## 1
Amino acid sequence: MKKIVILGAGTAGTIMANKLAKKIDRNNWSITLIDKHETHYYQPGFLFIPFGIYSKKDVIKPKKSFVPSGVEYIQKSVNIINPESNEIELADNQKISYDILIIATGSQIVPDEIEGLKGVGWQKNVFDFYTIEGTISLGEKLKTWEGGKLVVHLAEMPIKCPVAPLEFTFLSDWFFTKKGMRDKVDISFVTPLSGAFTKEQASKKLGNLLQEKNINLVPDFAVEKVDEEKNVIYSYDDKQVEYDLLVSIPTNMGDAIIERSGLGDELRFVPTDPQTLQSLKHKNIFVVGDAAALKSSKAGSVAHFQAEILEHNIMHFINNEPLQEKFDGHANCFIESGHGKAFLIDFNYDTEPVAGTFPVPVLGPFSLLKESRINHWGKLAFRWMYWNVLLKGFSIPGIKSKMSKIGKKLTK
Amino acid sequence: MPTATFGNHQVEVNDEGFLTDPTQWNKEIADAIAKEVNIPELTPKHWELIDYLRKYYTEKNDMPSIRFLKKNGIIPIKDLYSLFPDGPLKKASKIAGLPKPYSCV
């Protein structure tokens, strides 16, 4: 009996387990899924919690309910991966061997990477919204906050869901407007990038929107430290921004297991072939989702598209065939822009987000790189799709893992 | 493909003025680009990083991140910002005749 081990039961790992369970020959192969946590979080929902749109119960389900029958689920921490002996050592020293390992350990915020961030103000007037605890306490704070300088601050790239900080900023504008106190809140968006976003056309569009909403954009700000006595963030070139309420998106890194096992780069992400998703170092290790050191976005949609490619390549690997499925870097993200509207962007390694309609030319129903109400409804409906379609390893009708140029207004 | 002239050298550049062929680069070009990005003179400290980036690129066909430079003791970030103010890696790469570093999405 041969063994596939999937490390991490988040979005990417869970989808992979479900896809492979439907596909592999169970007489010869077994699947084991390992994760130390009990609860699966719908992470896109964390954005809505501070504004009271979602609460905790909307974003949690037990991980076990997404484990397909016939897949062994081990809820334990991992000490180390030993790629030389094809073994995983669990925290209780138990050893699990594998023929194929799929790393899906994700990415997480590491506030300790920024000097002073976890100081006296942490969870008092300094918050994150990338963890369930952070986003809930930020929500409590916003209920009673009387206004002042709100600074949304992005430490360094890459981050999980690169549009989330902008969405948070747009939603803040809407939230305080609705509460009738927008005039008491001064909102700034502080980023190490030269504009609102990394991709040129989208950056221009979103930058304009910040301006329309009277939000200050502070670009090229590489944070060095936070002084939580004085409520100031400092950059390496001695720029400073004062805050009353700081919402920080700290450095994102891969899991500590990756570093302990010597498998990661300087951010603990695993160097991976951008097309086949095979580890660059070990032929029987594959990487899916945020854990991979790739130039694609770290986002659920990307994990889902990668899983569709990887499913085929794992089958090719099992059958000793060339890994012929190629991932193109496809990402598809709704960008909530406040007041019941949202953008949609669709792009890949080579094509930046442009205007158009999606997934069908002219008819849409979604409009690309343009605000619309239907995009907003699409974003909210996505939660149902996530729990009921995506995690279970099914595809969304009409949306392919490879990016389509149909319906897009490409200039070049 | 647009071209740019630095001293007596004509080279191919992209829309943002980055050299498209790192082999067309030389030290005079570096000096000229430095002036364009408001660094009047390249000191030995500047050259240390430029040489490092050229070597890294030749070996790996990729650009290091600022975090990589810090973590591997190549240069403290504070120094990087004082040598190449406002977008240091972008400026240093441009002067070194290398592609614009990729900022991930």
Note: DSSP finds five helices and two strands in chain B.
## 2
Amino acid sequence: MGNLLGRSGRYLRMLRRLAVHTLSRELMFRGNFLVKVTVEVLWLAILLVFYKVVFARTNQLAGWDEPQYLFFVGCFFALNGLIEMLFLDNCNEFAELVRTGDLDGLLLKPVDEQFLITCRKFDWGCAPNVLMGAGVMALALYDMGWQVSLLRVGLFVLTFAGGVALAYSFMLMLTSVSVWMVRNQSLMEMWWLFSSLARYPREIFSGRLAEPIGMFFTFVLPILVVVNVPANVMVRALDPFMVGLVFASSAIALWVSRRFFLYALDSYRSASS
Amino acid sequence: MPIIEAQGLAKTYRVAQKKAGLAGAFKSLFRREYREVKAVSGVSFTIEPGEMVAFLGPNGAGKTTTLKMLSGLIHPTSGQARVLDHVPWNRDDAFRRQFSLVMGQKNQLWWDLPAGDSFQLHREIYSIAPAEFQATLGELTELLGVEHLTKQAVRELSLGERMKMELIAALLHRPRLLLLDEPTIGLDVVAQAKILEFLRDYHARRGVTVLLTSHYMRDVEALCDRVLVINHGRLIYDGPLAGVIERFSESKLVKLRFETHAPEELSEFGDVARKDGPLAELKVSRSRVAAVLAAVLERYVVVDVSVEEPPLEDVISRVFQEAEPAHDAA
């Protein structure tokens, strides 16, 4: 137990150091940083205006009323922002590390390879997304006159973490393929597909053609549960089966993606010097 | 107990082949052909603690591939190795804490930040106690004369300064084994000399085991008593540095200084390597040195004479040139 705590403390200290380093680096290029933050703020503003226009003409969207949907959008924005801040840049850079052989330097460090490769750099330009997402969620809860429920808050935090774990595992699997493909530009396209699926309520997949797709992306490749379940837990009906599905699928996905990542690293050839 | 033990270490790569042109590119989309490249073929050697050993070979001989297997970066196709009493490619943390690999062509520091920031990260990664970290950092920066540069962004440092910072980062955790892959590549003579002097001093102080690859014989002569020569993935020599010349050079250099101009007919005695006024240098096969000297001294008035081994640089370069075309290994 003491050993585990010591190990966790060491990794947390490393994470803090990496976070500080990357922030120092971002601030050295503050023009780039400001443009990035501005674009993200505009992107959220456009999204909110769009849904405002939609809800001016209807009371419900796939069974979600306006404050509920606002909460869903905030949840997506926060979760997506967190993933992009912590992992997307690192995973995207992995193929380049493989191609140039710069991965060598990381593999030689006495640290878990998955940690160092996927958490090395923080993209601080995405940090405002997490805050804005949290702000939108708070605003939505205020709008609907939400009554505080510790059970719902606790389950929201856990399913939100499960959603992050699922998204991270998905990204890690895609990243690992770079060891064989060397050039892996498809990662961004696949991530775009992932976030496009995750950003809408599961209920939009209704009808003879869409329903099987919705089922596939809920139970086989559970992308649709990533945002849907935490948002549902907080502002709609609490479905224990879906909560269990998030916990089980995130645990399995984390295990499978780690095994696959380590298997891929075993095939690493390093680049010629 | 040896610090490095390699037994029949071999690595074969499967390399995709593509015919030239667009048709070849389309064909390779559906049916890709592969060729097997033997980068390292059954290399065996041991290195004892505290040794400084040079690993020599032409480009593509398998030096870097061997270093990468010994550091655990890649798995061998066959063979065994134990480094610091660990199987390197298991990459145990306990193993990785005890060695460093410095590659002259790779930058491991954070490019946009001062080297001091990267050193702090190393402190966390290797769990170095603050007092020990400060003491080691102070010692290393002083030895390399870079105390004033640790707060400057790495990208603003010269190549020589960057290599010094790379060495500091590699030594902060006081490794028992240092693997150096072309550490002076691209450096000017002054920077090279400083790095070599540092490595010599550091080895004397700490007794670290060093395995070095370099194309500069100056590095090898300055640091190593023992060399491993590898060619086509096979170890062709393992022994003292002086023995390389004996093993690969059949001739010696006879240096002569005549009273007046060096005579024209010197080529009768051997290959004339140099002729400049009264000075001349003859390459003579080892077995004929005594006879040639006697004949020259009998026929001409010689003011000064010496018999020397040919420069290591020349011997090694001849060994490399005589090699068949190198394959694609690192």
Note: The interface with chain A takes residues 13, 64, 68, 71-75, 91, 93-97, 100-101, 103, 105-106, 108, 110, 112-113, 117, 120-121, 124-127, 181-182, 328-330 of chain B (CB under 8 Å).
